[in-house]
Amino acid sequence: MARAVVARSLVHGDSEHARLSARRVTSPCHEQKTDQMNRLIGRESAVDSAPVHARWVRLTHWVAAASVAALAFSGVEILMVHPRLYWGEAGNDLTPPLLELPISRNHRHGGWTTPTPLLDGPGAPVSAGRTFEIFNQNGWGRSLHFLAAWVLAAAGLAYVLAGVVAGHFRRHFLGGREALSVAALWRDLREHLRGFVPLPTGGPDYGPLQRTSYVVVVFLVAPLLVLTGLTMSPAVAAVAPVLLDLFGGHQSARTLHFAAFAVLMLFFVAHVVMVIRSGFGRQVRAMTVGDRR
Amino acid sequence: MTARPRLVTRREALAAGVAAGGGVLLGGCSRPMPPTYGSLLRLADNLTYVAHRTLLPDESLVREYGRADLTSFPAVGTIDPASAKRAEVAETYRRWLTSSFSEWRLSVTGTVARPGTWSLAELKRLPSRTQITKHTCEEGWTAIGEWTGVPLSRVLDAAGLQPSARFVTFKSLDRRYDSIDLLDALHPQTLLAYGMNGRDLPVAHGAPLRLRVERQIGYKSMKFLTELIVTAHLDDGGGRGYPKNGWAWYTGI
């Protein structure tokens, strides 16, 4: 029955209707056929009137992508220099970590002089001197991280401002009954898990799960990364010590910075997988030159 | 629907905003900058410096903690100059140790009215400040320590800054070379520290005297201080300084 609806819609050139109908085909025995229909509709939608990505979306997308790549690369380098994570204000090689990542030789426990107490009494904090050369490329690592952060801040600010002014968030992130209903989100999630390939619309006609992931990344993960990053700046924390209270201290902020990065990388993997599965060349072309051919 | 006349169009408002923001940051271009040596990374360091000095209040103080918050504190970099590879460094430091640092001197020169030298005893006679602060190492770790010393501003006042003074350059026994601007040099929490956690400054942490620049990353807080030179121009130390060796000069971030 659903196939009939799709076919009828195609005949009438109403590909949007066809697309929505195709989304609702969930019976396993129809899946193969549905995929074929999706591809068919995908070609059909090349000539439909659905919106394409706005120029400012395409521009800020690629500037953000490049700066996130530089931030991830330099961020991993910085983490390798001290691959230990803590909770609270202070944490170092002489205090217990929350988590230790085996990503460089720097988490070596030997190589320190005999600890000497820094105060009188039992259980006093100690000092010990490092006696081995650590891996440390933070000279370029830190500066590249902050250079990319400036670029991302500019692109991110432009994106959010333009998104509000142009009504992009209202219309494409929050708008539409599909996005707002829990049932639609649930159905979309089940379809994704079953390997349903969404249509490459080549525009901001996002599906429920897709737009939810964008909202989470743009309005939750990105601000968390920026704020926890700022918390680690001694000059900024001097001006806004409330940041230290908000995240429970410098090292807590550092741990949350890493956790938010991990979530962002999960998003990145899912994003690229979906781009590939829904037609890589077409999607990249839509996000670059802004047409669907 | 009738079109309402608009005083400012959206496009004009955005353009004005960008122009105003640029103007604020361009104001920093009159500020002396560390050299970039043709590196985009050093240029980004300078952008951070300008942004901090333009957007952040100059007088903000870092958080101070209580004695119960003191933590263990790694010593990195030079941890024992007495066993330095450079013979004259090791020899000098051993001489200082055997004299309980009575042979050690800090020289204060440059654009000051009264250049001179200070012994440890003379520095300790100046009004002191004790603060419990967080040390933020560029490597990623932090530690909380209590520092006792004389505010750098006291020593600069005693030397008498000339009107052209803008930066303070530091040199150490282990041949480090660095500088800070006058905003950090005169900051109330910038200390010449001779005590840590209520005791004399340990050798591994820079005895007899180290700098504390609390609003910057740890490597600005130079250990084993020997010289302090007030300058009218920024002196990054060239081949001996941080920028030419691939590190940021301003590390408030």
Word description of this protein:
Chain A is mainly α and 293 residues long. Chain A is 63% helix and 3% strand. Chain A contains 13 helices and four strands. In chain A, the strands form two sheets. Chain A has a two-stranded antiparallel ribbon. In chain A, a hairpin with an 8-residue loop joins strand 3 and strand 4. In chain A, helix 4 packs antiparallel against helix 5. The N terminus of chain A is likely disordered. Chain B is of the alpha+beta class. In chain B, the strands form two sheets. In chain B, strands 3-2-11-6-7 form a five-stranded mixed sheet. Chain B has six helices and eleven strands. At the A-B interface, helix 4, strand 4, helix 5, helix 10 and helix 12 of A face helix 2, strand 1 and strand 5 of B. Strand 4 of chain A pairs parallel with strand 1 of chain B, so a sheet runs across the interface.
List the helices and strands and how they pair.
The complex is a heterodimer of chains A (293) and B (253).
Chain A: H1 2-11, H2 15-23, H3 31-44, H4 55-81, E1 84-85, E2 99-100, E3 116-117, E4 126-129, H5 138-165, H6 168-174, H7 177-180, H8 182-193, H9 208-231, H10 234-239, H11 242-247, H12 250-277, H13 280-288
Antiparallel strand pairs in A: 1-2, 3-4
Chain B: H1 10-26, H2 40-55, E1 73-75, H3 87-98, E2 106-110, E3 116-118, H4 120-125, E4 129-136, E5 142-151, H5 152-159, E6 167-172, E7 177-181, H6 182-185, E8 191-196, E9 199-200, E10 210-212, E11 225-231
Parallel strand pairs in B: 2-11
Antiparallel strand pairs in B: 2-3, 4-5, 5-8, 6-7, 6-11, 8-9, 8-10
The mean pLDDT of chain B is 93
Level of helix content of chain B? Answer: 10-25%
- Rg from alpha-carbon coordinates of chain A: 25 Å
Average pLDDT taken over every residue of chain A? 84
* H/I helix tally of chain B: 6
What structural class should be given to the helix and strand makeup of chain B?
alpha+beta
N-to-C SSE string of chain A, H for helix and E for strand: HHHHEEEEHHHHHHHHH
The residue ranges of chain A in which pLDDT falls below 50 over 5 or more consecutive positions are 1-33, 42-47
Percent strand of chain B equals 15-25%
Largest interface: A-B, 52 and 56 residues
The number of helices of chain A is 13
State the strand order across the main sheet of chain B: 3-2-11-6-7
The residue ranges of chain B in which pLDDT falls below 50 over 5 or more consecutive positions are none
Radius of gyration of chain B: 21 Å
**Subunit organisation of the chains:** heterodimer
Number of strands of chain B: 11
Distance between the termini of chain A: 30 Å
Question: Largest sheet of chain A at a glance?
Answer: 2 strands, antiparallel
